[in-house]
């Protein structure tokens, strides 16, 4: 198989730039990054499909035919990238609408654990309430009258 | 007539898509949308059942879409493994749909439709079916994208802040794994000139070992993200708990299993020589142990369940990594068991949330007295998940342990030990939920007030006593004061039905396990599949 070096370099540059953007905090930049990666990968499909130049149509002429499959795949991938990008942009807009920024936020749990570690606190699951559970004298829920039918 | 039956393989993919279109057409009317979705999924369940019978009796059923030969076009194949998983997944999807219809009626009243929910849900089902049935890598990718795109919509449904936040992480992770998948497909195509599973099975052994291993690693990495295998699982517990209960339930049941299925299919069909056995075993051990340790540390029902979900993916990976027929059969059985049980538990968590307005263990209590039926509905699948005999979870784990002991090398034995420890810790985790939500009296209402965040004074608790972020819980639109009210039967009945399915898995464990064994046998032989795909092409 002959491969086109320039196209390979293009793929590399696009995916590298895209990856750099994905590592950003802003959702819009991340999406632009994924668009770059997606297009880079579409070019990659063309590279792997073999030599360029011929038409990917069977029986048009006696000329050798380019492989049509990767082109069909790239086309599908383009459509999918377009759809997800549109959704992602809507999401970025919604995030901006709600919080005034489209930064990807940390998970609250992770944030809590980090802060707790900084202040040298134990986890919430180390719960002393567990050890002082009333075992026998449980009188039931106070809000439930004795005559109440116990709901299903 | 026979031609028509051949085309039945198409039904699980086409029917939900058609149903979704019809639902969109009826976007303003609630009742037709519900009826269309129910009928569609019933038809899919029926066709999946027929497919399973036919695949079991006559070997893999294949159909080339558009009449192109399999190497060029798209072909769908239902062998025992795919049709078994298809049947159980559509059954679960149907139950969740009924539950969500019930919830929609309870939540918003009889006439207000959620115009995008039903179509998206049906598209999700089509994507899952497509992924299970596809016979080439690219169609598998398309199946993944269909289900991912609809899962993006479902996970951010309503567009509240918490859902947008957790949805963002989920979407970015999914996009990254999709990009990785595309790279893998392009590399596979460059190396072999095909993306068809059957042809790959024939052509991959001709490649140099290093190239084949690299391709295998790339595919594994992609699927491991989707399946939430340990080092790549961090996204899951962040993303799932915020979505509405039926959405989380169907995600937990199906989406990760599609990733596991893809690992199983590619490993057994394309890379049967298992150069990566050691790596897979380590991944399964770490997934099991790290996942369950996360579950033990959580104090919100949905988060505990999300972590057990990650943990139990390890069991399936364990069976796949062993690669023996018993191991693979155990993994298949475990996948079926886990799809139903995990979904049931998430549905029950939704009912708990309906009943008490929260799934935070610190605020729950006394549910066994308030809602005894709900307690039973939780107890049975929870014990099943933990693997208490005689439930199906026990049987699946037993098969996996047996397969591991048969191997008798130290790493397999370490994995066996890890799975035993994981089972015990799972029991601890579900017992904790049982104890605190159902058994112990309700907590002091004084504790319910959120504590303002001040690390110096409060020791880092951002959201009340437990530190569980209430912000990651959904803002409930239900009236939470349901004192003395019964559980809505529209939501309870599908949950009970699914609970009965989990029990049925135990009752009919013998025939089910023999199907799983035959499926594993078929995967091991490989030739029936390859012949079914390429033979009539």
Automatic annotation (TrEMBL), chain A:
Chief location bin: membrane
Domain of life: Bacteria
Region annotated Disordered, chain positions: 123-152
Gene3D superfamilies: 1.10.287.3510
Membrane topology according to the record: Multi-pass membrane protein
A GO cellular-component term linked to this record: plasma membrane
Annotated localization: Cell membrane
Annotated signal peptide: none
Transmembrane feature ranges: 6-23, 30-52, 72-93
Record InterPro entries: CPA3_antiporter_subunitC (IPR050601), NUOK/Mnh_C1-like (IPR039428)
UniProtKB keywords: Cell membrane, Membrane, Transmembrane, Transmembrane helix
One Pfam family of this chain: Oxidored_q2
Keyword tRNA-binding: no
Entry's family note: Belongs to the CPA3 antiporters (TC 2.A.63) subunit C family.
Protein name per its UniProtKB record: Multicomponent Na+:H+ antiporter subunit C
Organism per entry: Aeromicrobium tamlense
Lineage: Bacteria, Bacillati, Actinomycetota, Actinomycetes, Propionibacteriales
Automatic annotation (TrEMBL), chain B:
Membrane topology annotation: Multi-pass membrane protein
UniProt key word Membrane: yes
GO BP term, pick one: ATP synthesis coupled electron transport
NADH:quinone oxidoreductase/Mrp antiporter transmembrane domain span: 134-422
Residues spanning the membrane: 6-27, 34-53, 81-102, 114-132, 138-157, 169-192, 212-236, 243-264, 279-297, 304-322, 328-354, 366-390, 410-431, 496-516
One of the record's GO cellular component terms: plasma membrane
Keywords linked to the UniProt accession: Cell membrane, Membrane, Transmembrane, Transmembrane helix
Principal location listed in the UniProt entry: membrane
UniProt keyword Cell membrane, yes or no: yes
UniProt GO MF annotations: NADH dehydrogenase (ubiquinone) activity
Name of one Pfam family that matches: Proton_antipo_M
Cell location: Cell membrane; Membrane
Top-level taxon of origin: Bacteria
Region feature Disordered, mapped onto this chain: 457-484
NCBIfam families noted in UniProt: PRK12665.1 (NF009308)
Family statement drawn from the similarity comment of this UniProt entry: Belongs to the CPA3 antiporters (TC 2.A.63) subunit D family.
Protein name (record): Multicomponent Na+:H+ antiporter subunit D
Lineage start: Bacteria, Bacillati, Actinomycetota, Actinomycetes, Propionibacteriales
